[in-house]
Specification:
This protein is mainly beta. It is about 10% helix and about 40% strand. The strands form three sheets. The protein has a 30-stranded parallel β-sheet that branches. Strand 23 and strand 24 form a beta hairpin. About 50% of the residues are buried.
Length: about 625
């Protein structure tokens, strides 16, 4: 096994390669854009122009830790909004955001259009670990490019394990030099109550890798001095048998999860985040919400690297995620590793959940967070037991009237344009139509190196998405997973998904799946589930194609699908499966467990499918456990 130091060197080299490709391929185009902007006088250089243009009383000098960059950035954005500025840039260096613009946000890019913010390969340091960093809201044709982010106070720490009491589920620890004691997280609160309370999680590493068959563990708050008490949540890795495998000297990463991450894009169109590196996040590192025609391109989410050591994780949650996606969104040529949840994701979340039906056209629902459904919105309904989606209806009236923003998780009584079928409480209400659920979107040409807790690629409830030419390394859950659920984070079924020309290597192990076995059954998997966490008995997902992929050394099945109506599984190469039969099962009943134990001995499993063509797949149970022989053999 490679040393962690050599793996980190590989991280750095691969990340540098991604960024250098962008720089070389787009330098001429970028210089031309800046030149045109300069000729028209539509450029602001924050390091030179603020005084001259009357924007502020001082210019923004780089590399000054005591200078709060936020007020000067904020003034420049306000000026750009009213003066048709096309480019904002600055001198390369480090910039420090010491105070937030609002109680929740360091800097808001609000209602901007036709603007490029080029940060000249600078590093942005945010002071507080759980506030939102840059938030782009209601923007049109805006590019944020060439930057990296860090926190002055990281949303995680590293400690050394001293001893374990398996029966009490407690871990005694000692702080490490240069890292804060986890007790400093006591009393830390989320800036926004709508995101829920902050949670503490622990994950144990040995020689730079997660300890086999373990996963993240929920930590009781507040933390006692020198002791991490683990919640009794009946997960296999918090039971005495697994805790007894932890050794003195192991490194425990304690994370604060909650709030928002460094980059959030909300309700925007044609926004590009490019040539960016994210070091650390308490939540999703780069999050797009209810946005369309937008791109994350050459984005790197990776641990920080120091002179003498490096962090063991990058983000406490996902890497790059389009949530409640609109059409034509893309994650391209990006690099993600060491996240504590899914690396890359596109979802179309349910707009609301049915509470009660008071008449043939009246339905009271509970809104999902702040998601909007104004009058005139066409919706479908998702049966919580079968996961099947009904035909659409259109909202014609709602009480109370929708506000801006809507009431978080508020109840609304809706009236529709025609009679509805009987709907039980818990029925999902989803936006109707491919364009509203991601049509034309893609996740392509990315590298995911290692995910200690999560999927490499997740598609949930989306319609018309391509997953192509990605390289996915070790993941605790499915390497590429199309998984829809009617509970917890409910989504409608997925339709018209193409998974092609990907390399998925080493998924499902040696770390355990911490989110339930339902999303950890195959390196490439399709698995709609219902409100009891059971695999769908119907066929809600439609037209799913899995073609020309290579799967090497999967911990369980190579390809595993269920609940599909229409599609193709063809021309795939699967070399090595069932590599980790020791992995624990979690969140399934005895009958399902017995079936899966048989499934995992098979390279390709298809349950409960109709009109799915399976053809020309090549499988070989190689005796090699490494990847080099298998990768050379797997070339199509």
């Amino acid at each position: 096994m490679r040393s962690y130091q050599s793996i980190l060197l590989l991280f750095s080299v691969m990340a540098a390669l991604f960024l250098s490709v962008l720089t070389c391929s787009e330098a001429l185009a970028g210089d031309g854009a800046q030149g045109a902007a300069a000729l028209t006088g539509a450029t602001i250089n924050l390091s030179h122009d603020l005084i001259r243009m009357g924007i502020a009383s001082e210019n923004l000098a780089p590399d000054s830790p005591s200078t709060d960059a936020r007020p000067l950035f904020q003034a420049a954005l306000a000026y750009a909004r009213s003066h048709s500025v096309r480019l904002i840039t600055l001198d390369r260096g480090a910039y420090y955001f010491l105070t937030p613009q609002t109680a929740q946000i360091y800097l808001e890019f609000s209602q901007l259009s036709d603007l490029t913010v080029d940060l000249a390969d600078s590093t942005i340091h945010f002071a507080h670990p759980v506030l939102r960093g840059f938030v782009l809201s209601d923007c049109t044709t805006v590019t944020l490019t060439r930057f990296s982010t860090e926190f002055l106070n990281q949303p995680y720490t590293h400690v050394r394990l001293i001893s374990v009491d398996p029966l009490r589920r407690s871990i005694a620890y000692a702080p490490l030099p240069g890292w804060p004691d986890p007790v400093t997280f006591n009393g830390l609160t989320a800036p926004d109550s709508t995101t829920g309370p902050l949670e503490l999680w622990a994950m144990v590493f040995r020689n730079g890798d997660i300890v086999p068959a373990t996963s993240r563990m929920h930590v009781v708050q507040p933390v006692a001095d020198g002791v991490l008490d683990l919640m009794q949540d009946n997960t296999p890795w918090t039971q005495s048998a697994t805790l007894s495998t932890l050794n003195p000297g192991d490194i425990v990463v304690v994370t604060v999860r909650g709030g928002f991450g460094p980059i959030t894009v909300v309700g925007s169109d044609h926004v590009t985040i490019s040539d960016a590196t994210i070091h650390g996040s308490s939540a999703i590192a780069v999050l797009f919400i209810s946005s369309s025609h937008s791109v994350a391109d050459h984005v790197v989410v990776t641990p920080r690297h120091h002179a003498d050591n490096s962090d063991l994780i990058s983000s406490n949650a996902d890497g790059i995620h389009f949530s409640s996606t609109g059409p034509d969104n893309h994650i391209r040529r990006s690099f993600v590793t060491r996240t504590m949840d899914d690396a890359l994701a596109i979802d179309s979340r349910d707009l609301a959940t049915a509470v009660s039906q008071s008449g043939p056209r009246q339905l009271t629902v509970e809104r999902s967070a702040f998601l909007r459904f104004p009058n005139g919105t066409a919706v479908t309904f998702v049966d919580p037991v079968t996961s099947v989606e009904s035909s659409s209806a259109t909202i014609v009236m709602q009480t109370p009237t929708q506000t801006t923003p809507p009431v978080f998780n508020g109840q609304v009584t809706l009236t529709f344009d025609h009679d509805l079928p009987p709907l039980v409480a818990g029925t999902g209400m989803a936006v109707a139509g491919s364009p509203a659920r991601g049509a034309g979107s893609s996740i392509e040409d990315n590298v995911v190196l290692e995910v200690p807790f999560g999927r490499g690629v997740w598609i949930g409830g989306a319609d018309g998405v391509d997953v192509a030419r990605n390289q996915i390394g070790h993941t605790s859950n499915g390497g590429i997973a199309v998984t829809d659920s009617t509970i917890n984070f409910p989504t409608p079924p997925s339709h018209d998904i193409a998974i092609r020309d990907n390399l998925v290597r080493g998924s499902l192990g040696p770390m355990a799946s911490g989110s339930g076995t339902q999303i950890a059954v195959g390196a490439i998997m399709v698995a709609p589930t219902n409100n009891k966490g059971q695999f769908a008995g119907a066929t809600p997902d439609t037209n799913i194609s899995i073609e020309h992929n290579r799967v090497v050394n999967s911990g369980r099945s190579g390809i595993w699908v269920n609940g599909i109506d229409g599609g193709t599984i063809g021309d795939n190469i699967i070399i090595g499966w069932d590599r980790h039969p020791e992995l624990p099962f979690f969140g399934i009943n005895a009958q399902t467990r017995a079936q899966l134990q048989q499934d995992f001995k098979q390279p390709l499993v298809a349950h409960n499918v109709q009109d799915v063509e399976t053809r020309d797949n090549v499988t070989r149970q190689s005796t090699a456990t490494g990847s080099e022989e298998d990768l050379s053999s797997a070339q199509p």
